[in-house]
Write a structure and sequence with these properties.
It is a single chain. By secondary structure, the protein is an alpha+beta fold. It has a single domain, classed as 2-Layer Sandwich (Mth169, Chain: A). The protein contains two helices and three strands; from the N terminus they run ββαβα. It has helices at 36-52, 89-96; strands at residues 4-14, 23-33, 57-67. A three-stranded antiparallel β-sheet has the order 2-1-3, with helices on one face. The longest helix is centred in the middle third of the chain and has 17 residues, at 36-52. The termini are far apart.
């Protein structure tokens, strides 16, 4: 079977003892595998190791794979997830992606 590229999203929860809330991380990793299930297996092993190495981190068990249409390169897609919603774009982004509680590793001018 031919090897393909897969982007896999994993979700982690951290209890950092701050404000009585958990901090969640979505981590995207890139895998070369024969199938999506094989990529998910590799990513699951990696996610367990990642969580084990970090204080207060728990792997939530959520893994989502995306079969990449071509070999990754500069500007190439590494993950895609589509979701149906009745929310308009600004409400959708506010509800799922820009809630005000994000911790950003790259400055966005704020």
């Amino acid at each position: 079977m031919a090897m393909g590229w897969f982007g896999v999203r994993a979700v982690f929860a951290f209890d950092l003892g701050e404000r009585g809330v958990l901090t969640y991380e979505e981590r995207l990793t890139l895998w070369r595998a024969e199938s999506a299930p094989a990529a998910l297996e590799l990513a699951g092993q990696d996610a367990a190791d990642y969580a084990r190495c970090l204080d207060g981190c728990v792997f939530t068990g959520l893994l989502q794979a995306c079969d990449l249409p071509e070999e990754p390169g500069h500007g190439g897609e590494v993950f895609s997830l589509m979701r149906d919603s009745a929310l308009l774009p600004d409400k959708y982004v506010a509800a799922f992606f820009d809630t005000g509680w994000e911790r950003r590793s790259i400055s966005d001018g704020e």
